[in-house]
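worker-03 picked up job from queue 'complexes'. Input manifest follows; two sequence lines, order preserved.
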Amino acid sequence: MEANLAQPLPQAHHAAPGGVWRWLASTNHKDIGTLYFWFAATMFLIGGLMAMLIRAELFQPGLQLVQPEAFNQLTTLHGLIMIFGVIMPAFTAFANWQVPLMIGAPDMAFPRMNNWSFWLLPVAGVFLVGSTLLPGGAVAGGWTMYPPLFLQGGISYDLTIFAIHIMGASSIMGSINIATTILNMRAPGMTLMKMPLFVWTWLITAFLLIAVMPVLAGAVTMLLADRNFGTHFFDAAGGGDPVLFQHVFWFFGHPEVYILILPAFGIISSVIPTFSRKPLFGYASMVYATASIAILSFLVWGHHMFTVGMPAAAQLYFMYATLLIAVPTGVKVFNWVATMWRGSLTFETAMLFAVAFVCLFTIGGFSGLVLAMVPVDIQLQDTYYVVAHFHYVLVTGALFSIYAGLYYWLPKWTGHMVNETWGRWHFWLSAISVNVLFFPMHFLGLAGMPRRIPDYALQFADFNRVASIGGFVFGASQILLLIVILKCIRGGEKAEARAWEGAEGLEWTVPSPAPYHTFAQPPEVK
Amino acid sequence: MNANGNQRTSTWLTTLAAAMFAFGFALVPLYDVFCDLTGLNRDAAQSLVNNTQVDASRRVRIELVANVQDGALWRFAAPRQPVDVHPGELVQIEYELENLTGQPLVGRAVPSYAPLAAAAHFKKIDCFCFREQRLAPHEKVRLPVLFVLDRGVARDMKVVTLSYTFFALGKRT
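worker-03 finished. Artifact:
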């Protein structure tokens, strides 16, 4: 390590270059983090507008706004965009900004590859969104891309497969970069067990991504071959097996679920200790819990497909293995609660979102436990109960953690404190409306309303109307977040290096806003 | 910053990603291997091999006929022997089609049945007559038909004739 410090850094110490080239050719982890963030924000707007259309159509029974074909395209694209275009890039934005700052590294390990990882994403985004304009419209077979439906669509299905390939390549490159940075570029003295938990969760997430994104790439490559090159991996008429796709897909899909939530755990584990003014309770157990969740995630994929005609032995195994995940997840939730216990709590917006995360993510976790039980799942498979479950873990879970992280680290990124009044409005409107939006979906699912339908039986009308109203308020509330961010970039109370009283960690030792280049000399960690 | 270390780590991680890509394809046979080893999904209740709908008490002879509209272009041949089937049994037979010209040809087969009453009981699971056939110059193909003559077929119907007539479709290639 010492030897290289004497040499000049590959990129000389200069200020940010101006104009569009600063962004197109950037190799700076902070710039690339910002790009990731704005990409996620743009895709969130698009995916969010699709959700608004879905809720508008479901406001009352009958077909009002969109035809069933268009509705199916909306649900499919909404899912793909929110997962691959919003949550994953947003977490990568945090990784880019925060990982080098938190471990005292001057930049990511491979800055040019970092640039590539990002600039592949807008291409994939354009393919996904642009496929709506192709003959036959966008993909409409559900984000899970199950054959035989996915084998039968038009050219947009091929384009979507291509987009998945590109996003997969981007994720794999990003993950290799992040894992290498964390493994090799920590400041002297920062042992693995001294890393902030956010860094730990991202290290484990990076390994999950490297392990399963190639499997997804393989699965969609097989789809592509079945569609265009006469193979029969999934085509029953040619001796293939459509259920095989579900097995391969969910071998990717379940670890993907934790890819979407482990960085959230990391953010929450940074925010809660700060505003509790106590160190994180049970740091080591948090690390082990995260690792256990990651390992278990490879062993439970079958619970997504209990109804495919699986032998009872397999159903039992997948059920017990799935229920087992509640143990490390419970460790995490109790540790967060114990961190807050007898702390000097203050409720800045970041903390509000973090506390809401703990409560609401737990609701999503509990409905997950309900769904893990085979006899119940057979009843609830593909109902709105499932929709309620995964929106609780992905919206009030992953998305709220992203909000918490934004409110927490924006002072470090922009140099200005967040406007708390606007932030509180954003929080309370979001937190209330999101429950109005998703909680009734539990009831709809228990009553038997299937997911992915544009029209429904009359008895579901009331709860759907309530959910739609919640949806519109939630959607509109997110405009407040945009205002908060723009206000924070333009001005506001000057943030100190340690923006929050109880904040610990290397990122708070550099000035706010963080200079373009930080930690050219690695800090000493005791 | 340890540039060599970074290189090593990234090589290792890239190898891992490549191995997982291969593993995704390896899963295709591996799931079967796993089920064979453990016996999961391999018991009688899970298998569809036992066709309970076969009426073994009688046989029906299926005569197979092939006609072609323009014999100068195509050679279209039925299996030489008629097949004897139990009603309810799944049967596969193969026709043959050969393009006799130096041009690519497109055609389609149309089935007919004698006696006509048999048609209602003739369930084709897969048939070349469902699709247009495109043949390259001098190409020779085997055309499978997968069918079930269901149990509803009358007991006095001892012989059924399945006949295909092959038509060339325009000049499209």
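worker-03 released lock.
Residues 1-12 of chain A have pLDDT under 50 and may be disordered.
The interface with chain B takes residues 1, 4-5, 105-106, 109-110, 172, 175-177, 179-180, 183-185, 210-219, 222, 233, 237, 244, 247-248, 251-252, 309-311, 313-314 of chain A (CB under 8 Å).
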